[in-house]
Design a protein that fits this description.
homodimer; Arc Repressor Mutant, subunit A; Tetracycline Repressor, domain 2; 2 domains; 9 helices; elongated
């Protein structure tokens, strides 16, 4: 079913989520719609699977300090935002999630995957006894927020110095 | 031409930017395409105008302190993000801006309008002699970023306490 995922991926890149139909994916991949629906029960399931194959997996770094771990994570996300194709497709998922419950669910799953390494490094920091940490949802919002804002809203360059200031501000 | 803007607005709300065509707007508004193109040279110009009529204008507050001004601004943006229809359309503009230069230009103009009151309150703070302010693009990214993240990505509630912490973190 690689040809189906590949066709989905290509359509996502070229025209975003609104350009995706199972008809078109079937036409491009040469795989019958009935076969596609046997593997993926819905368009949303297929989109989620294609997205999961697009992003480089985000591991939890282990540098020995929370600041180091967050800096490594934020730097990797900044790199992906500026180079990987999922970054140009994410706004179409955000958009569709406003109108479509299934896609809102896809978005929540993607977001959860993005949070996982943050949870791991924050858990480790607690075990090491690092004190007076802000709540984890706050840290994540104050790191991911400015990165996303620069990528999709102000469309400014995200450089290493910016990432460092974002992390230091998040740690308060 | 109010009927054209109204039809554009309704289409934006119901299906986002991808649902917008001048054909469909002409059909809904009963105004001929040639007439529409006489008033708006392109689909993008029409979308920009419809968006400009949707958002409540964002004034520059004047509370006497930068913290007070930023808190007033951030609270008003948080309110609009959670209640006004432009907030559910913005992701479709972000999405289209990835693929379409004209819409990227529309997005840049909208973003600039959003920045204007921040520039005003930061300018006033400088005139009052408030010291050691972070750079204005940094302050804006660290305030708007977390608000946008919660509205369009994590889809968490944005309450007054969160807005206050965001502003305090931005001021460093």
């Amino acid at each position: 079913m690689d040809s189906v995922l590949k066709a989905t991926h290509e359509l996502l890149r070229s025209s975003g989520l609104s350009g995706i139909s199972v008809d078109e994916i079937s036409r491009r991949s040469g795989v019958a719609k009935t076969t596609i629906y046997r593997h993926w029960p819905s368009r949303s399931a297929l989109v989620l699977d294609a997205c999961a194959h697009m992003a480089s997996p985000l591991g939890a770094p282990d540098t020995g300090s929370l600041r180091g771990d967050l800096l490594a994570l934020a730097s990797e996300i900044a790199r992906q935002l500026q180079t990987e194709s999922w970054a140009s497709i994410a706004p179409s998922v955000m958009d569709a999630a406003e109108h479509d419950q299934d896609i809102a669910h896809v978005q929540a799953l993607q977001h959860n995957a993005l949070l996982a390494p943050f949870r791991t490094v924050l858990e480790r920091a607690k075990e090491r006894g690092e004190q007076s940490l802000p709540e984890s949802a706050e840290i994540v919002a104050s790191i991911l927020g400015p990165l996303f804002y620069r990528r999709w809203m102000s469309r400014e360059q995200i450089d290493g110095a910016f990432v460092e200031r974002v992390v230091d501000r998040a740690l308060g």
